[in-house]
Amino acid sequence: MVDRNSKYRKGSKIVINYFVLYFNNCCIHGFRYLTDSMLILFEKFLWLILLVASIYFCIIVCLSSIDRYYTKSTHIGIERNYIFWNTTLPSVTVCPVDRLNITYFADFCRTNGIKGPQRDILWDFLENLANSTYINFQNIPQNEQIDQIIEDIGLKPEHYTELIYNLTYDRTYEPNFNERIRCMDGAMFIHVRQVLTEWGLCYLGNSKLTEEYSSRYFIFGKYPEYNKYEYENIRLPYQVGSFFQKDTQYALLGFKGPAIIAFAHSAFEVMKVDSNSDYAYDGVLYDLSTEEITAEDNLEQDTTVAMRRCRFPHESNLTHFPFYTRNICQQECRINLAYKICKCIPHFYPNRIANPKPVCDYKTLRSCFPQHASFFLKLYEENGNHENPATCYCEQNCHDSVVTMKSMNPMSGAKQLLGGIGSAVSVKTWPQSRLRRQVIFSLTDLLVSIGGTAGLFLGFSVLGFVEVIYFFTIRIVFQILGYTL
């Protein structure tokens, strides 16, 4: 028992002597006064109070710097050197009212033995299904004949969109120039593609989104095929303008149906299903203005999503979509909300995921969705009928633009003059300021701030930190082994 106490006292003395050795030799101000034999107890106590206070305030200020780094390291500033800018024109998405191709449909009916009145019933059903969205699901026809036809051809809900796609002719690949859907600025061709939206298959022009946003990629996971008719001509991926161009415009043309539905939106975004032009029988001419939101080149590398509170397109955290925009994020919110309320999702959403959600049959689209249409579109309800409100937060786009509509007018005489209808975008005035996301407190600033704080309160430095590591790792090992340094 005595030997054990003796060993304990001896070990405690060694530990105390080692800390005294460190206090006498460390570069942190004030520690050596705690072990100085020349000072009386009151002086040592005074130095201890000063050291505790300095360490406390050093930690508080350092934590404040860390909090600033993670929560306030970026801001949105204003730039005004507008004479050096090129501003991207807004995008336009056009959805034709007549979706199906009569030739493809005839071949499908011939292959599946659909004749006579059944053929007309199926055509009407598929056209309404292809044009259906949250505001008009109730217009999908329902009767026993449709049920019988669906049963005969073995059409399952998860194949609705694939069938509509196969019966729709992508007229951006039309050899005849006058029949082709094209996006043009005078003699210059602008890239246009077929996309799958919440209003079915539509056409998008002047977009800065990647080719992953296309109907073929959403449905089959394949990029759009090479369009030789577009690449044979002088082609722009998207149209830009500058302050010195007083009137810049382009048109998305070639629609032969009785009417179209058009959406004008940011070139960095997708259309919103509730921001359409209604049915336009002569086409739509938009007079718009736009103000871009840009980002510093180092914003992505120097910050995380939580720090900058925005996402770049390739930083998708979504399940159904391979890229990110705020409107796409809200579409995923609608997917989850529809699945929660109606136990299935509409047919026009991409569903190529590890665990696909069940797709609604047309009867569920008619019965469940119309009564919740406002909730699905707004993602909230003013009267609060639903027990569990939609919990959906979508970060902003790091690159974006604010599009303001000055006017929206019909393109009178477009059918006679151009042989079809479409939508045109005109920008007559250019912004003299734009917003820019900037890093104002980088990791280097954080290290300088912490180092300056530690130096101010404790006289601490990088070498002081190395000294602590050295004393309590390498030196203590040698002390245990019995070596003297």
Automatic annotation (TrEMBL):
Domain of life: Eukaryota
Keyword Transmembrane helix: yes
Subcellular location: Membrane
Spans traversing the lipid bilayer: 14-33, 45-66, 439-462
Alphabetical list of Pfam families matching this protein: ASC
Topology of the protein relative to the lipid bilayer: Multi-pass membrane protein
Keywords: Ion channel, Ion transport, Membrane, Sodium, Sodium channel, Sodium transport, Transmembrane, Transmembrane helix, Transport
Main location: membrane
PANTHER family membership: AMILORIDE-SENSITIVE SODIUM CHANNEL-RELATED, PICKPOCKET 10
Annotated family: Belongs to the amiloride-sensitive sodium channel (TC 1.A.6) family.
Protein name: Sodium channel protein Nach
Origin species: Drosophila mauritiana (Fruit fly)
